Amino acid sequence: MVTNLLKCRLSGETLARAVVRLAILLIVLGNARAALSQQNAAEEAAARRAVLARLPPDAAKRVFGSATTPAPGPADAIGTFTKGCLAGAVELPADGPNWQVMRPSRNRAWGHPLTIGFIEKLAAAGAGLGWPGLLVGDIGQPRGGPMLTGHSSHQMGLDADLWLTPMPEQRLAPAERDEMRAADVVAESGDDIDPQRWRPEHRKLIEAAAHEPGVDRIFVNPAIKRELCREAGREAAADHGWLRLIRPWWGHNYHFHTRLGCPGGDPECHNPVPPPPPGDGCGKELDWWFTPEAKHPEPGPERKPLRVADLPARCAALAPPHGP
Length: 324
Fold this sequence. Notes:
Blueprint: H1 2-9, H2 15-29, H3 41-52, H4 60-65, E1 76-80, E2 83-87, E3 90-91, E4 95-96, E5 99-101, E6 110-111, H5 113-128, E7 134-136, E8 159-163, H6 174-179, H7 200-211, E9 215-220, H8 222-233, E10 246-248, E11 255-260, H9 284-287, H10 292-295, H11 313-318
Parallel strand pairs: 5-7, 9-10
Antiparallel strand pairs: 1-2, 3-6, 4-5, 8-11, 9-11
């Protein structure tokens, strides 16, 4: 599998970049949960109990997953997307003129101020494109860090999951937001979108997100990337440069995952992943995702949980009190 991944996914990159990307791929494969956004409050609580039962007291997931308030001080993203934390986090209000926060019981609507501003701006832009409003999934924890369930990233408050379900006209009660299922816009085969659920406004919203300053990349299901390439191809005179930031990834059939790059004023924030390669990513690079190797990847090895001491040194100071 490793050889084929390097050949099919990383052609044209330097060996050093290939090793970095492969390492990140193995990390995510080992921790993937395709239907995370579908878990309701009871399912999420059960998953948390199961994880807590086997974690040591100083496990970073346990410590940062128990934080209920942000760390004081100015906003500062520390570490990397999969090994970091966040100071000065801001919470996205549960309700805005063009958004509603989903799964409120998770307490994951915290992010870097730039991320919160990005979501608010995209929600307003979406309204002008015919999108009725954003249903916002996981952003990050009050102090960032590893989560008890689901993500291996989302640790510095620069990632956000935005549902592909249009916001309903009515304001949902907290219990409804914890129970409502997200719409799956990918066909059962996984080879294409579901034409009964996919709408032109999906493309407009994702394209608008890709045009926002500071966006590093946007993860979508490979079938969604294929549809975006198809729709953009019908507009020969249009600028397709935005497609370069749209990266296919496992899962992501219920939401698209936006990631901002490290803020210029946060010197301890590091992005180990090279920028997306030139081009729109609609050729052979995309074709690989529909091969048996990609559709049925080998499971990654089970990894030991990160300890607080494994995170950047400043994260230990931001961690809430915990046992020895």
